[in-house]
Each structure stands twice: as C-alpha cells, then as structure tokens.
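Q: Convert this sequence to structure tokens.
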Amino acid sequence: MRQLAIGLLGCGRWGRYILRDLRILGCEVWVVARDAASIARAKESRAAEIVPRIEDLPERLEGYVVAVPATAHFEVTAALAPRGRPIFVEKPLALSVADVERLDALAGEQIFVMHKWRYHPGVEAIAAMVGTGTYGCALHVGIEFSGWGCNHEVDPVWVLAPHVLSIALHLLGNLPPARFASGERNARGVPVGLRAVLGDMPPVDITIESRNPRRRRHLRVAFESAVAILDDPYADHVLVQPGDGTEAMDSEAPIEIPISTEFPLLRELRAFVAHLQGGPAPISGIESARQCVGTTCALREMAGFSPL
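A:
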C-alpha cells in the first residue's frame, strides 16, 4: 500500500493515540494543533508537520481525522467539507440532529464517525450470533458503561451514550425507539447518569454512570438458548453460557469463544486508511450518526436533561 498523507485535527488526550496508530499504519500525518501541550504531543509522536489552522493544511492530503472537542465537531467538519475528501470524525458527529442534517447536506457521503466499539472483536462476535441466530433469537440486550469522573468538555451522558448506542446499533442493525429514560444529576445539576430502555423485541437496557467507583464496560445478550457476555474490553474471549436460566448452572459448561485483542481504535483507523486506498467505506456513516445523535437527544429529553 502506498503511503497516505492525512490531516489530523486535534492532538489532545485521544488525538495522540490516533496519531500514533496512523503512524503505525504508515501514514504521513499533518496535525492542526494550537496549544503547547497538543503541539508537544504531536512532536513526540512524530507528526510530519504541525500547523495552527485548517487553512494551512496542503490540498494534497487524501483524508482527515477530526479529534477536537465534541463542541467543535460541527464547525471543524463543516470547514473541511469543501475540500472534497473523506472525513473521519470522533463521536458524536454533532450535538444536535439539526447539525447532523447540515453536515449531511454539505458532504454526507464523505463523512464517517469513529464509533470504535463497532470495531471491538467481542461486539463483532456477539453481533454475528445475533445475525446468524446461532442461539436462537435475541430476547434481551443489556449494556452498562460505569466509572468515575469525566474529563471531557461535555457532560458524561454525552460522552458515554454514543458508545452504548453504537453497540446496540451494531447488534441490531438499527436503533429501536426510546421507551424510557431516567437521569441522575450531581449537586451542581450536571447530568452524570442515565438509565434507559429502547424498543421491546428485544428490549435494550442501558446504564450509564460517572459516579461509580467501579469501572465497568459490560455487554450481555440473552438468546433463546444461551447468554453471551463481554465483561472486559481487554478480554480475549466472549463467554457463552448455554441454557435458558431455569436449569442448574452446572448442567452445561460455559464456552469461551476466542476473540482478537487488537485495539478497536487501530482497527477502525485501518478501515479508514483502506477506504482512502479505494476500499469499502467505514461502517458508521451519516445515517449511523443520525440515529446515535437523535437517540441521545431523545433520551436526554426524556430524562429532563438539556440538549447540551
């Protein structure tokens, strides 16, 4: 594969890992960075060039990755759209459905979203079980993202909900309608938790918490004849327990289905680079963004949270 020249917008806490993986994939990376810390990270990770403005990026770049704060995703993506190149944007694409629609009108076919959990080997494995009916129909989906604190510029619900919803989207093909949402705020009124239900066949139960000292990333899908669990994002297997829950636990031994431990970020960036080389588009396009942002906004409204 020939070397690609890619523009990276932002080199913050997450952008530095994107730069690292683009370099692993053999790309020449031009970074737009302004503050001293971001510039230092870009230098440390051997960016080809570091410039302060989008306008300073050369026209020869073949694609762009946007890793700026979520509040700037719309502005930066809109500024890149006239360049006519594919754009890979960190989730969420925007903070309102209206802004997603504006971006669709500007450059919908060239915009993709970095929903890394859709590239997690464990999520892929369980999605394959859903799609093939290996253990019968899916009867229930449960997803929990819990932990302590949030160092983003938006509240924890905006940070975590797109992750959880992208998993549900990957499992089911489309996001079911929001049925229920209950929110939790801290003493300052900031949204820090959400319990929600989507759809009814199967229902999707969602738990998001940023005031839980136990960090957890948990996916459970109950099928007619088994339950599949991914209980650790770094696990090397998916656990499948055959049965319907009415028999003794030891009636049939659990099965460990091996999965790759390659990081999802590298996997999704590889997909984007392959697309720039003429391969298929990344799996999360503008329609995925429309569903994830729209459902996040609907759940926030049900829970009594403000849009932002």
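The radius of gyration is 20 Å.
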